[in-house]
Amino acid sequence: MMTSAGAPAPKHRRGSAISFSGFGPPPGLDDIVKQAQDLYLHPKPAKMPEGKKKLPKPGPAKLSKNASVDEWLKCAFNNQYLPESVMKKLCEICKEFLMEESNIQPVSTPVTVCGDLHGQFYDVLELFRVAGGAPSDVRVEPSPVPTNVITSDDIEPPTEITDPKLKKKLRSKDTEGEGSANTSGVSDEDDAEEEEERGRKRESSHGASLGIEKEGSSTIPGNQNYIFLGDFVDRGYFSLETLTLLLCLKARYPDRVTLVRGNHESRQITQVYGFYEECQQKYGNASVWKACCQVFDFLVLGAVIDGKVLCVHGGLSPEIRTLDQIRVIARAQEIPHEGAFCDLVWSDPEDVGTWAVSPRGAGWLFGNKVATEFNHVNGFQLIARAHQLVNEGYKWHFEDKSVVTVWSAPNYCYRCGNVASIMNLGEDLEPKFTIFSAVSERDRHVPPTTNRRTEYFL
């Protein structure tokens, strides 16, 4: 091409603008510009990816005539509760497996340890997603808006509140009688709510990954075992569906799922804080609740990971010095009001000398000296427990980090604003925490009638 002066036209450089003045736009350019303007001014919603599952919708499950445990599990992942006769059968199956387990169940690494769930079903699905998978062939799709996942390498929970404005805000909440969410991990849950030889060793087995591994997160993808530290029910909207999912996983993969009893796995507590009422509403009677309570009676009291990490719901007891003293407890009963059994599900770590009376009205407060001595006598390097709301998702207790609290119910009671965590342990037994947030409101269903649960301060 030649210019009007006869000199050759400069070559067009990539990235420079091209002017079409003087010889008109190329064919179709006006149409392209118009389409671009329309898209800018009137953007079309993005299409969902092919195969994208809809948000699990709660309701009764519709099973085939001879439905298997796999079909029950699929319905459970879709937030559907099982028919009464099937739910009772599921409870019987789980009882048979639980009867074979020791009070303290041995578990092998790799393992994911989960804290309180409290019936927050959609957050349990999120837990499995960020954990990298669960023992199931049913996939949990990621949320449309990815949840921020932070690992323990990115954040270390503060040991005290240093922001004066936050301190003032928390004090004002305390004076109003509200359950303030502090970072001490001592009584936040209380303010918001109340609050081997015989066993078969848990070996990793093969199974499809349930979730999607997040790049950069401290997950153990694939075939890890799971330990759930109790308090599966009460407070949340879907206690029945949450428990159904855990029981289906236990029935389908008994050697990979360990269910530890919490203080809410009890007849007395569930009659006050939601689970009993929910069963009555969905089944029209209390027969399923009774069957579930019989399962509660056979849940293990704790687990030991590779002989080095003790997992319990609450804490220690002045009546227990060795693991053998836990092994001989008669666990097939309602949780007593006092004694070693009671203490295991109710006690809390605290900065006390040895033992102190618990403000909960059950269990004890135990100090660093007690925890350190117990670990030394039994050859443990760590006690992992749940039972207390921690705003940061997990918290180390005492200078030597002999105890850790794991909390797995984000935005507890749908109002506390906390994050949650899970603890992953590999062969090196080095704890790695994955912190996750509650799923957004648009990614969860809320029952049409949600009665406010009774508050309790113990």
Number of helices: 13
CATH architecture: 4-Layer Sandwich
CATH level 4 superfamily: Metallo-dependent phosphatases
User: What would the principal axes of the Cα set say about the shape?
Assistant: globular
- The top level CATH class name: Alpha Beta
Strand content: 5-15%
User: What name does CATH use for the topology?
Assistant: Purple Acid Phosphatase, chain A, domain 2
The rounded Rg comes to 27 Å
Strand arrangement within the widest β-sheet reads 3-8-9-13-15-14
- End-to-end Cα distance, whole Å, is 88 Å
Total strands: 17
Residue-averaged pLDDT, rounded? 79
- Number of domain units: 1
Q: Main sheet, how many strands, which sense, barrel?
A: 6 strands, mixed
Oligomer: single chain
The poorly predicted ranges are 1-27, 39-52, 137-146, 155-162, 173-220, 452-458
* Helical residue percent band: 25-40%
H/E topology pattern: HEHEHEEHEHHEHEHHHEEHHEEEHEEEEE
Keywords: Hydrolase, Manganese, Metal-binding
Organism: Lepraria neglecta
Protein name: Serine/threonine-protein phosphatase
EC number: 3.1.3.16
Walk me through this protein's architecture:
This protein has 458 residues and is α/β, with parallel strands linked by helices. It has one domain (82-443): Purple Acid Phosphatase, chain A, domain 2, CATH 3.60.21.10. It is built from 13 helices and 17 strands. The protein has a six-stranded mixed beta sheet. Strands 5-17-16-4-6-7 form a six-stranded mixed beta sheet, covered by helices on one side. Helix 2 runs antiparallel to helix 7, helix 3 (84-99) crosses helix 7 (239-252) and helix 3 packs parallel to helix 10. The chain is globular and about 55 Å long. The model is unreliable at 1-27, 39-52, 137-146, 155-162, 173-220 and 452-458 (pLDDT under 50).
